[in-house]
Amino acid sequence: MNPSAESATVAQPVRPDRRRTPTAIDRIANEYVERIVQNDPEFATTLGIPGQEEKYADHSPAGLSARREILVHTLADLNAAHPVDQVDLVTLDVMKERIGLQIEIIDSGVTPLNNIWSVPQTTRSILDLMPSETYEDWGHIAGRLANVPQALGGYIESLNTSRAAGHTPALRQVEAVIEQCKSYIAEEGYFDSLINRAPTEEPSLVRDLLSGNDAAKNAYRDLMRYLDEDLRHDARQKDAVGRDYYTLMSREFLGAEIDLEETYWWGVAELDRIVAEQKLVAEQIEPGASIERARELLDADPSRRLHGTEALKAWMQEKSDTALRELGKTHFEIPSPMDRLECLIAPTADGVVYYTGPSADFSRPGRMWWSVPKGEESFTTWSETSTIYHEGVPGHHLQIATALLAGDQLNRYRSEAVWVAGQGEGWALYAERLMEELGYLEDPGDRLGMLDGQRLRAARVVFDIGVHLELAVPQQWGSGVWDATKGWEFLKANLSDLEGRIRFEYLRYLGWPGQAPSYKIGQRLWEQIREEVRRRDGDAFDEKAFHTRALRLGSMGLDSLRRALLNS
């Protein structure tokens, strides 16, 4: 690595004595966060806010109606408010876009069911974020387990309401969630494994945990039975969601309105460009090697292989610590307490790497998790180096921790409570390319791994938009119109991974429309915004200052980000 040092004049982190005096709009934003936290206990856990550790949100139609009422009330307050400065103007832009869109999504009448991010998964996964160090912590876990029936029962009500309105999930997603439910409730499955980690010295706690475990497993058993014996019969055969709903979801995940056809054909061209770049890198690894041959050589290299999860965890931590230390001296603002990132092996076995942000006071640090499939004991570093930068620094950890640390100049909504995938995941993918620019991916193997990730994200754009809008298949990838079968063959040709993981991704794209393309499209929009600011500023453009200013704005839709940076 040979990152060139930058000398840049950049605004220093704001100190407590420069804390912003809340405006009327800040107060509306803060009150909105309070209402949402009370309405959504899982969200409170995500933010590290105590007080509702044992509860779940009401996922029934009545609960959804209550959430809509909060949104409508807050939007009316915002429309009546008057901004006093640039921060207020940005807050209005961000909140009106996000809240207005949430109302549209609720009014669509669709209750999502998919294999990755719907109530069956989030009801379980929130347990992973709960503290588990003390008897009190485990008491909260027992209490939340006991309330799983309420969460899933309300969700079944919403699925029935959605079905009555003519909106049913795809059969493929119903079947996928049935299999997930089976794995959760299996002997020594997720729930059994969870309580097996609990202390056993307190008999009353053990009883509560066993009782909660039974309640949670029975609730998932009831959901599985409902999906299998009831909803399955009305589930739609077709995977494509159609243009109207896809457009709504694209706006949700990007916070931007795009030309879907233009973006689709850009994705086709971008995929071709990345494949061509991979061929050049493969040639560096071995003259005349194909991309597949280069991957085989890298996999066979013992210096690029780790054995056991402890070695994997240590490698993750060392890479993260180095990036934090070096980039904090040169290219980014990384003050304490955001200069700490904890790397962990996840309690699940999905095969993904992910990040969870710190609590607002940083008492819970930012964490990078590796979910290792059962039986997997050997890991390659070349294929995952850029993933460490994506999830950690300068990716998600830098992004989320910077916004949290900017809380003294932002209201709670801006600093803690909003997340837009295209802005967030787009930044992380942008960060991978940035690390290449900074000299951290000069090794051909690490670079090929980064390009594999970029290729995957470009292929998602083509697959997701193509299948859900039923567009024409590009000549180089087949013929006719996209459907799920053609999409499967396309993904197998472009995803360098085990078939089981490709299958998981395939189901994810079919069931979560608009989300997967937001990474690559978000990267594209970040790069476009940077170039627009560069053209505006001319010789005065400072990339370090641009990144600091952009990240201190907090998460927001990409159209809002563009306006905030170009109007500042």
Task: Please sum up the structure shown.
The chain is mostly helical and 568 residues long. The protein contains 24 helices and five strands.
What keyword list fits this structure?
24 helices, mainly alpha, disordered N terminus, 2 domains, 3-stranded mixed sheet, 568 residues, globular, two-stranded antiparallel sheet
Protein described:
With 568 residues, the chain is mainly alpha-helical. The protein folds into 2 domains: 24-237, no CATH class; 251-519, no CATH class. The chain has 24 helices and 5 strands. The strands form 2 sheets. A 3-stranded mixed beta sheet has the order 2-4-3, with helices on one face. The longest helix is centred in the middle third of the chain and has 27 residues, at 203-229. The protein starts with 23 loop residues before the first helix and ends with a helix.
Low-confidence stretches: 1-17
Categorize the overall geometry.
Answer: globular
Strands of the widest sheet, in order across it, are 2-4-3
Give a count of the beta strands, DSSP E runs of length 2 or more: 5
Please outline the helices and strands.
Blueprint: H1 24-39, H2 41-47, H3 61-80, H4 86-107, H5 119-125, H6 135-146, H7 148-164, H8 171-185, H9 190-196, H10 203-229, H11 243-254, H12 260-285, H13 291-300, E1 305-307, H14 309-330, E2 341-345, E3 353-356, E4 366-370, E5 378-380, H15 385-391, H16 396-405, H17 412-417, H18 421-437, H19 444-469, H20 484-494, H21 499-511, H22 517-537, H23 543-552, H24 558-566
Helix pairs in contact: 1-2, 1-3, 3-4, 4-11, 6-10, 7-10, 8-10, 12-13, 12-19, 15-18, 18-22, 19-20, 19-22, 20-21, 22-24
